[in-house]
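STRUCTURE:
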């Protein structure tokens, strides 16, 4: 079974998706789901729940510094 996932902004009720060309003429199931929940920011309570679930996070500050310096030296934008 072939599966194709497409994320797009709907501009009208008529949709043209070239990715579906291989499935034209076949029996398919079409599911459209709004992605609102994925786009809203976390609430403070959700952040607290997340950090409580993952526990303390340890990282090597020197490694982070070296990574940023490497990116800067090679013309890469700093990570977010």
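SEQUENCE:
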């Amino acid at each position: 079974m072939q599966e194709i996932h497409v994320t797009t902004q709907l501009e009208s009720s008529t949709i043209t998706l070239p990715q579906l060309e291989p499935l034209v003429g076949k029996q398919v199931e079409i599911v459209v789901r709004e992605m609102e929940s994925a786009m809203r920011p976390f609430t403070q309570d959700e952040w607290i729940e997340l950090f409580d679930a993952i526990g303390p996070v340890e990282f090597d500050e020197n490694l982070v510094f070296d990574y940023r310096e490497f990116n800067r030296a090679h013309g890469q934008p700093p990570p977010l």
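REMARK: The chain has a mean pLDDT of 85.
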